[in-house]
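Quiz preparation item.
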């Protein structure tokens, strides 16, 4: 029941905000468009945190490279949105995006083919991160790379991709990335209705994956994942193909992260190589730690709370935000190992009265004793 209640709260809250954003601007309950876009971005981050918690909290895979899957999904969406601009770009070229015209490209690269169709783009948004995760996971887990070594390799992966996407000859916009989007599925991205729709879509996708993840970890598959996390050698000794379980959950989490990045791009209006930065992946781990590792709902709460704090602090004290983030991670690690969710469970446990002590009955001596 708790699983569906969380999903209902997420989706219901997004629907309420979306409807309020469509009220006239002078209405007292009107929600501005920038707030809708901000909340949509938070929900995309929450889905990214959920994907990290699935592999870290339940399998023990501390990935410091999930930002790469997020960015790849975002680039796939960005390529689709760039193809929708058509002749409305600065240079009026109906085939080539503006940055290609500026760099004197003569024709559209072959890997941009098909991105004028949303169905093809959607397939790439899911398959590209999943394929990268499969190749990486198969090689790493088959070699039994674990612990801090695996974390360093995942961080190196996202850093290498960041350097590659910075190159202009890669055909992805180089340092500037992809931006100046116009439409999404035929709807203007500047429209309040489109922003509201994207917010609801983000909430629906987050709710769906939360329910699926909760079902996975509650089933026999999830029990095996926890066994691998707690005693991998013993699980392998019992006959479980540990590598297969790790690869499967790693690929699934990468697909989640890729779709989160895909929904993120139309709501922020840009995707550039900075999304591959290792710091972004590390920050996602902090969201999970703050909310509560191994709880799923904690990852969602942590992502929203930390990013809300980031929005507030970067506006008031931008030079102190990174110190505040680092201090928050240290405090949570030392004093709240189970995060916000663990703190809430402790508070609720204290509110429940202890059962009354019942004195043991006194044995009466029988006759003849």
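Solution:
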């Amino acid at each position: 029941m708790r699983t569906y209640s969380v999903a209902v709260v997420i989706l219901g809250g997004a629907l309420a905000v979306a409807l309020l954003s469509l009220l006239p601007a002078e209405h007292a309950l009107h929600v501005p468009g920038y707030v809708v876009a901000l909340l949509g971005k938070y929900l995309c981050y929450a889905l990214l945190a959920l994907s990290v918690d699935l592999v870290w909290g339940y399998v023990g895979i501390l990935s410091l490279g999930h930002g790469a899957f997020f960015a790849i999904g975002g680039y796939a969406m960005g390529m689709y949105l760039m193809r929708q601009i058509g002749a409305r770009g600065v240079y009026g070229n109906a085939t080539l995006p503006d940055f290609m015209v500026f760099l004197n490209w003569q024709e559209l690269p072959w890997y941009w083919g098909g991105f004028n169709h949303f169905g093809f783009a959607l397939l790439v948004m899911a398959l590209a991160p999943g394929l990268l995760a499969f190749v990486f996971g198969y090689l790493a887990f088959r070699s039994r790379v674990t612990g801090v070594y695996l974390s360093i390799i995942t961080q190196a992966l996202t850093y290498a991709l960041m350097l590659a996407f910075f190159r202009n000859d890669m055909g992805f916009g180089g340092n500037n990335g992809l931006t100046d989007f116009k439409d999404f599925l035929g709807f203007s991205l500047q429209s309040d209705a489109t922003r509201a729709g994207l917010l609801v879509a983000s909430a629906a996708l987050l709710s769906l994956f939360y329910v699926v993840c909760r079902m996975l970890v509650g089933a026999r598959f999830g029990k095996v994942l926890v066994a691998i996390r707690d005693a991998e050698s013993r699980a392998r000794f019992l006959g479980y193909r540990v590598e297969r379980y790790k690869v499967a959950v790693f690929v699934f989490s990468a697909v989640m992260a890729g779709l989160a990045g895909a929904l993120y791009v139309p709501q922020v209006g840009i995707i550039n190589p900075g999304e591959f930065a290792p710091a972004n992946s590390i920050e996602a781990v902090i969201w999970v730690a703050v909310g509560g590792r191994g709880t799923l709902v904690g990852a969602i709460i942590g992502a929203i709370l930390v990013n809300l704090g980031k929005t507030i602090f970067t506006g008031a004290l931008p030079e102190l935000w990174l110190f505040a983030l680092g201090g928050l991670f240290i405090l949570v690690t030392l004093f709240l190992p189970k995060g916000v969710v663990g703190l809430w469970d402790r508070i609720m446990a204290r509110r429940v009265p202890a059962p009354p002590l019942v004195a043991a009955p006194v044995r009466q001596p029988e006759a003849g004793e």
